[in-house]
Amino acid sequence: MFDGDGMLHAVTVSGGRATFCSRFVKTYKYNLEKEVGSPVILNVFSAFNGLPASLAWCSVAFASFLLRQYDPRRGVGAANTSLALISGKLFALGESDLPYRVEIRADGDIVTIGRHEAFGEPYMTMTAHPKMDAETSEVFTFRHSIKAPYLSFFRINAEGIKQPEIPIASLNEASLVHDFAITRNYAVFPDPQIVIKPAEIVRGQAPLGIDAAKVPRLGIVRRCAESDGEMWWVDVPGFNMMHAVNAWEEDGGDTVVVVASNVQPVEHVLDRVDLVHSSMVRVEINVRDESVRRRGVAAGNLDFAVINPAYVGKKNRYVYAAIGAPMPKIGGVVKIDLSLSTKDSGDCTVARRIYAPGCYGGEPFFVAKEPDNPAAAAEDDGYLVTYLHDENSEESKFIVMDAKSPNLDVIAAVKLPGRVPYGFHGIFVPHNTNS
Ligand SMILES: [Fe+2]
Fold first, then answer.
1. pTM of the prediction?
2. Which of 118, 231, 239, 323 is least surrounded, with the fewest CB atoms within 10 Å of its CB?
3. Which of 116-153 are b and which e, b meaning 16 or more Cβ less than 10 Å from the residue's Cβ?
């Protein structure tokens, strides 16, 4: 499920017309394997299924390397996870490689420009979930590695120029750090029970595994730090954060609040995602005494949550989350009002849309009513957009929901000429990008 080549699906709305386009991201992996006519590059999640399969995959990759078909310095990723707009440029991302720059042309076509090596060096990677501060247009991001330093934090300035990296030496093993959060002053990283052990490959096992004895942690570092010397970690037992929703500071900066989905049981994240329950939780970290409090903010199996992007790193009220039916299928979307969350509150869901039987959606994405000035109106004054597939009629649609309405009413729908497979993350791109 996690290894397929990245395919982008775009609906371009302009002049009262909607244009649909689906294109593979033309990664080095995609182009090489198309030229050779068979798989060459190891798939991280599926290649290591027992010793014979692992040996076969390693033999193919090594033979290709010897035949000079395969140059590992050019990356291994499928750019299949997410999209980000960085300094006005659009990128397709997958955490096992550097981002690939893509463009959406005026006619709606999607074009791959290439691997963006200005964000790293040969063999390097970058997270699929960078965070942009809407006020400064700076982007905060990181990469993880199978060798020390296992995590490196860095900033890309408003002009798109990568700044020096902060190696996180206090992380003493490779963990699957899929996402993180920023506040006005801090970056918050998870250290979950999902660990990466390349040595397992020689035993025919996947390099990703679960360390049940490990206590999950959160690491806090100032986002303008010049070294990780001031980074500190707090234990958060039972909290395995895959996706952060948002974070901010309260109490004059004495409390860092993180809203995120917590996956349980973590053992099934890698092999049986349909058995995973993701809970939406609020974690409060006291910066002074390093104590931690945690409470749920909504009932249900919720992940792929989004907010109004103008509020990244700032206190926000509304979260929109996909309902696992079970995951990876998404049976609807909820709207959560975080202002209702108190130590005694329960479910803070204030609106819900359940799709028709047999219909499943993608990640909802919030589009402000004035996308060029998303902070101009109320936080929830905008739309939720997603793809919807009907397994009964085999039809796919692009739908637009009113994020302010009590039932997240569908106010527009575009019937698509082809299937949009269930996927991961999306983005809204203003019309003037790439112009
Ligand atoms: Fe993700």
1. 0.93
2. 118
3. beebbeeebbbbbbbbbbeeebbbbbbbbeeeebbbbb
